[in-house]
């Protein structure tokens, strides 16, 4: 499975592509989409949208994991972050990619083991988990890789639960079939 992780931001949107089989994973590529604060906001959104669409075309991910929004003290910043998230969600939806959203706290809890981890702690754990020689820079790209890693952990759990549920249903159906067959022979 190949996952595109996105850390949305109006100045810097981090992205990272991670490939894995559910137990092991490796980084394919990571980076940022940088916009200029002097540009009109609509043009910044267009640049982010085009960048994400180009990444999807180039890497053909199976899933897109996006960091969920959180309330900042500045309402304008929160609204802009929501618009950037909307652009990322739209780009993934247009490409018919499976989309998953994770809160910043859950990402940190999953990757570092502590929901209030600092940026440098996330960078270091991403380095360790992906067997990189140095911590990914800038932190926006490391955060995007962390979101992708978080998806692997939670998607793997979800897949195991679905498989377990299917096994239970299969066993129940087999028991009913055996019980029905036994009753028919008894008649």
Could you characterize what this model shows?
It is a single chain. The chain has 187 residues and is α/β, with parallel strands linked by helices. It has one domain: Ribonuclease H-like superfamily/Ribonuclease H (Nucleotidyltransferase, domain 5). It is built from five helices and five strands; from the N terminus they run βββαβαβααα. It has helices at residues 41-59, 75-94, 104-111, 119-129, 139-186; strands at 2-7, 12-20, 25-34, 63-67, 98-102. Strands 3-2-1-4-5 form a five-stranded mixed sheet. Helix 2 (75-94) links the parallel strand 4 (63-67) and strand 5. The model has no long low-confidence stretch (mean pLDDT 88).
Topology:
Blueprint: E1 2-7, E2 12-20, E3 25-34, H1 41-59, E4 63-67, H2 75-94, E5 98-102, H3 104-111, H4 119-129, H5 139-186
Parallel strand pairs: 1-4, 4-5
Antiparallel strand pairs: 1-2, 2-3
């Amino acid at each position: 499975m190949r996952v595109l992780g996105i850390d949305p931001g109006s100045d810097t949107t981090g992205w990272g592509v991670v490939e894995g089989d559910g137990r092991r994973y490796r980084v394919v590529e990571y980076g940022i989409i940088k916009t200029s604060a002097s540009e009109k906001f609509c043009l910044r959104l267009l640049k982010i949208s085009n960048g994400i669409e180009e990444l999807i075309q180039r890497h053909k991910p199976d899933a897109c994991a996006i960091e969920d929004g959180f309330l900042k003290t500045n309402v304008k910043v929160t609204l802009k972050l929501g618009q950037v998230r909307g652009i990322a969600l739209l780009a993934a939806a247009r490409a018919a990619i499976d989309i998953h959203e994770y809160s910043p706290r859950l990402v940190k809890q999953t990757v570092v083991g502590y929901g209030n981890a600092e940026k440098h702690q996330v960078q270091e754990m991403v380095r360790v988990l992906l067997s990189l020689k140095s911590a990914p820079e800038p932190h926006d790209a490391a955060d995007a890789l962390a979101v992708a890693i978080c998806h692997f952990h939670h998607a793997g759990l979800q897949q195991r639960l679905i498989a377990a549920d299917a096994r239970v249903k299969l066993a129940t159906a087999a028991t009913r079939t055996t019980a029905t067959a036994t009753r028919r022979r008894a008649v």
